[in-house]
Amino acid sequence: MGAAYAVPTAVVVTLFFLIPLGLVAVMSVDHWPLLGRATPNFPANYTDMAGDDLLRRAVGFTLKYTIIITVVLFAVSFGLALLVQNPRPGVGALRTAFFLPTAVGFATASLLFLGMLSNEIGPVNPLLRHLGLIGKPIDWITGSPTTALSSTVGLVTWRFAGFNMLILLTGLQAIPTELYEAARVDGAGRVQAFRRITLPLMRPTIALVLIMMITGSLLAFDQFYIMTRGGPDDSTTSVVMVIVRQAFVKFNLGSAAAISVAALGVLIVLNVVQLGVLRRRDS
Amino acid sequence: MIRRRRVAAAGGYYVCAASLAILFLYPLLWSGWASVHIGSRWSLQNYRNLLTYRDGIGTYLVNSVIVTALTVAGTLFVSLLGGYAFGRFSFPGKNVLFLATLAILMVPYPTILIPLYVFLGDLHLQDSLVGLSLVLVMFQLPFATFMMRNAFEAVPGELEDAALVDGCGSLGVLLRVLVHSVRPAVITVALFALLAAWNEFFAALILLNSSEKFTLPVAVVAMEGHSFGSIDYPTMQAGVVFMAIPCLLLFGILQRSYVRGFMSGALKG
Lengths: 283, 269
What we know:
The structure holds 2 protein chains of 2 kinds.
Chain A: H1 2-5, H2 7-27, E1 30-31, E2 39-40, H3 44-51, H4 53-83, H5 91-103, H6 106-116, H7 124-130, H8 145-173, H9 177-185, H10 190-218, H11 222-228, H12 239-248, H13 253-282
Antiparallel strand pairs in A: 1-2
Chain B: H1 2-35, E1 37-38, E2 41-42, H2 45-52, H3 57-88, H4 94-103, H5 109-122, H6 129-154, H7 157-165, H8 170-181, H9 183-199, H10 202-207, H11 216-221, H12 233-253, H13 255-267
Helix pairs in contact in B: 1-12, 2-12, 3-6, 3-9, 4-6, 6-9, 7-8, 9-13
């Protein structure tokens, strides 16, 4: 009887998840144009990846972006969580302020930053000039690979810090206050308490946040597609952008499928490794 | 002396915290300001431009509302029944199906969307708002099924037994009794499906081809390539405000469901 209620789930999961998952494997071993007949060409789609210059640069850039954003976003999120950890007047308003960007869609946020960093109407350049930090306006988004990357780091930090802050905050609040009191009685300073109590007990939460940040960054797309358009000179083209480009600009769905399968493989390996590390630390 | 130092420390805390809060709120406030200005002059022209942009913002709004409504309805239908099945019954294949549902989370978006683009064509759902909605329902299922299963598991068995004794069938129990007990989970699942569908960019970009089918995010992003390289930034900010306002309103009204959803989704999922 109960199985009948699971039928809609089974239908949706089969039609829109399992069948496409099988199909992507088939597509990856075929020459599969956007229009026209598919013909087997294994292993060309996979071997072609090695010679794809743009893909190689995209892999390098995506890794670099992942490292930078994980460090920056984690530092900011953890800092905010520590800032709003203790109950005091106004702390609820602060939490809401930091969390509010999370309520806005990511594509919306990318368009917002596109305007804010623009030379036409953006307030950032005038502000920095007013403060005497820069001499002439900077083309944040198209000026150089560094400014384009910095722009996306700013955007992603603004949009996701509150979300990660909230998760880290629950971890922080799960630590019994008696532990801190006991440490203070024993003469431990704040830094010591942080290192000996907060960090070890926060490990599972920190690991979770880091896994989500790393996975999300490896699959980054919206911020580059919308804000930097992958430029300047393809310098901010991510792996997922290459997949979309192979499929809908080069009309080579087979190649897009092969890169997608490779991406799936990398993520599975990564998740298994991360879970293994987590479990070993737990025991 | 100690007191003075404590006051100074508190003052330092609030100055630092308040400047950070302003930094986080500023982009939202700026966007609102920029959307009603041309140069430094107050104007509603940007919103008027939206009305006549391509097929008119109304077309894209209707598309977004359709996709959002279908996604919310579909997600609730599938996950309510599925959560009931997983939380209250045991049947062959239960664990396999539940794990397969959760596995959706593990697979990168493009890995599933590239073949879906082809497969939706076979189903005659290519370039279709219904097709996009069904895909978005699928993406919502891990979170929704997980939430609903936990909610159904938490309902005490006596409630169900009493209703069964009163002569309800298992569907009657679900509709008359259990739906009320799992209402918080229903609200959270609906809210998340709504926000995800309203804001979805990547799936909509890939699965919708023709301009009159675009949802709001895809349409507003398309402004970038609209007028030969020069972007009408103020009108774009009007589009940003247009898309952000419903999200911010919902956040204001349903803050509690919102935070609970994030927590249970992130911590248990």
